[in-house]
Write a structure and sequence with these properties.
By secondary structure, the chain is an alpha/beta fold. It has eleven helices and ten strands. A hairpin with a 2-residue loop joins strand 9 (about 275) and strand 10.
Length: about 280
């Protein structure tokens, strides 16, 4: 069984490879994992091209939703994007915040951060910055963000509870998040659950939908709303790398479902933030 550190190292290596490969290669893979399907489309991602601020150089087809579209960003807001990749959601958020706002992208893969910074320089945005760091321990002071967005990233993080604790720390009182992620209904076959390649492909790192919603509620967020939900169908040629034909048929006939959900929630104005076992304020 892999440790959290081993999983993170594997994900970092995989997404470093993605940062360095062509967009066309990413677009033909499952969550950008690299050529794992003969289907010429991404099984997770939604179409960003119609959103204002869209930058094709920053779109690596790695997402599973359009959280920025639902994030209720206003002019002058400070927005943080968790797992910012090449900067796609950051640049769309910048279109919403305007010159008076600020956008911070956080990614733990150095190659992605470098790619995003190059993209920002090309379009001369001086109020968009990218920081390298873990989203379970953000390089951001408390009560900074009006809005937090993230697209298909938390399912890659072993300590999801730690991420939500950081989100509520970093949001301003009354701030909110809109996050797209992959969740499950029922249990995946163990051969998929344990496959590192599928973990980097945003499937086997997912948790149960209700467990995901409970994590949000247990960390003190309110007004939790599912803004969008869609079923994800993994092509047979991907599954055949892990399951036999009979196992695929059983999987299709079962009740297990893989879903992309976009969840909105707010930090209460009077939220309490815990800073240690004996310290809450």
């Amino acid at each position: 069984m892999s440790t959290d550190a081993q999983i993170k190292d594997m994900v970092r290596q995989k997404y470093s490879e993605i940062a360095l490969q062509d967009k066309e290669v990413n677009a033909t893979s499952c969550c950008g994992a690299g050529g794992c399907s003969t289907e010429v489309y991404n099984i997770m991602s939604d179409d960003y091209t119609r959103l204002e601020g869209y930058n094709p150089d920053a779109d690596l087809n790695l997402g599973c939703g359009l959280p920025t579209q639902f994030a209720k960003i206003k002019k002058g807001d400070t927005v943080i994007d968790l797992g910012s990749g090449a900067g796609n959601d950051c640049f769309i958020a910048r279109q919403e915040t305007g010159e008076g706002g600020k956008v911070i992208g956080i990614d733990f893969t150095p190659a992605m951060v470098e790619k995003a910074r190059i993209n920002a320089e090309k379009i001369n945005f001086n109020n968009v910055e990218f920081r390298q760091g873990d989203i379970e321990k953000m390089p951001v002071t408390a009560n900074t963000a009006d809005v937090i967005v993230s697209n298909c990233v938390l399912n890659l993080v072993p300590n999801k509870d730690g991420v939500f604790k950081e989100i509520i720390r970093v949001l301003k009182p009354g701030g909110h998040f809109s996050i797209s992620d992959i969740v499950l209904a029922g249990n995946l076959p163990s051969k998929i659950q344990e496959a590192a390649e599928m973990y980097a492909g945003c499937v086997s790192g997912a948790i149960q939908k209700q467990e995901y919603i409970d994590l949000i509620a247990n960390n003190g967020f309110t007004n939790i709303t599912i803004q969008k939900e869609k079923a994800i169908v993994v092509p047979d040629d991907i599954l055949s790398g892990y399951l036999s034909k009979e196992e695929i048929e059983q999987f299709r006939a079962g009740s297990t479902g893989i879903y992309s959900i976009t969840v909105y929630a707010e930090k209460p104005v009077e939220a309490k933030t815990c800073c240690g076992p004996d310290c809450c304020s």
